[in-house]
Amino acid sequence: MGAVQQLIAFVVFVVRSIGDLIRSLAPGEARRRQAHAPFVLAEAPEGGAMPGGTAPVVAPPTAPTVEPLHPPTRAEVEAVIHHLPRPTIWPALIAFGTTLLGFGVMSSLTFAICGAVLLLIGVGGWIVELRHA
Description:
Helix content: 55-70%
Largest sheet: 2 strands, antiparallel
Number of helices: 5
Shape: flat
Strand order of the largest sheet: 1-2
Structural class: mainly alpha
Number of domains: 2
Radius of gyration: 28 Å
Number of strands: 2
Order of helices and strands: HHEEHHH
């Protein structure tokens, strides 16, 4: 198997793993998993059908208790808003520089150098901006 095919197989594996993780964290997933859970043996009353007092009685799974959500108070919202940084272009520049650097590693030294320069400019600009904030 060639290197490109191995890389594609690895990327497909990672994407599927991330998708499975996201689906497992989705709301209601616990209920779906519980609905497909194996049956539970429950204790039968004395004199049950099987020796020892147990019979294969199917007990329904119990639903988890959910506390009702309340809307956040004004103080909670203001506390979050005061801690948020200003919107900035530096993360996008870092992402583009990293992408260009990765592309350059696979294709051309020129792209890699341009990507590294953009990456360093983005990191430096973001650090300077955060220090002055």
